[in-house]
């Protein structure tokens, strides 16, 4: 007697897999990384002050979490309305990261070291968060 079994393996697609869990984990990792970059820069003597006020490493972490939440919202919108959610999200996120350099460049009293450190934290956060969220999006909507 031969027994035949049909195995139905369902691989989750990005429309059914949650984005929030990996986005939250990436946000926490990015927050820790940006705080570490800021702490190392501060220890190296880089003045992390904006408008005369010192910016603590925890401030970098908080802003990273806020921006990750915004990125999550953009990803959810792209998943729902974009024809190519993954590509559209990556392009949008990279463009917004580039635009985030403008305030750093325009701070009148910031030293070059401070500006470079601020921009480096943007790049570090984006390098951690964007790929994690993008991996959860479909390449195209069906």
Automatic annotation (TrEMBL):
<feature type="transmembrane region" description="Helical">
    <location>
        <begin position="116"/>
        <end position="137"/>
    </location>
</feature>
<keyword id="KW-0732">Signal</keyword>
<feature type="transmembrane region" description="Helical">
    <location>
        <begin position="89"/>
        <end position="110"/>
    </location>
</feature>
<keyword id="KW-0812">Transmembrane</keyword>
<keyword id="KW-0472">Membrane</keyword>
<keyword id="KW-1133">Transmembrane helix</keyword>
<protein>
    <recommendedName>
        <fullName>Cell envelope biogenesis protein OmpA</fullName>
    </recommendedName>
</protein>
<dbReference type="InterPro" id="IPR045713">
    <property type="entry name" value="DUF6069"/>
</dbReference>
<dbReference type="Pfam" id="PF19545">
    <property type="entry name" value="DUF6069"/>
</dbReference>
<feature type="signal peptide">
    <location>
        <begin position="1"/>
        <end position="43"/>
    </location>
</feature>
<feature type="transmembrane region" description="Helical">
    <location>
        <begin position="59"/>
        <end position="77"/>
    </location>
</feature>
């Amino acid at each position: 007697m031969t027994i035949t079994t049909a195995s139905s393996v369902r691989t989750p697609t990005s429309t059914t897999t949650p984005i929030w869990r990996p986005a939250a984990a990436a946000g926490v990792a990015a927050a820790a990384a940006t705080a570490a970059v800021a702490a190392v820069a501060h220890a190296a003597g880089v003045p992390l002050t904006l408008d005369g006020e010192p910016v603590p490493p925890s401030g970098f972490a908080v802003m990273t979490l806020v921006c990750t939440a915004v990125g999550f919202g953009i990803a959810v919108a792209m998943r729902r309305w974009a024809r190519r959610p993954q590509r559209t999200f990556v392009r949008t996120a990279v463009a917004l990261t580039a635009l985030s350099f403008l305030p750093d460049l325009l701070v009148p009293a910031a030293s070059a070291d401070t500006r470079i450190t601020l921009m480096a934290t943007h790049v570090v956060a984006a390098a951690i968060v964007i790929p994690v969220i993008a991996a959860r999006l479909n390449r195209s909507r069906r």
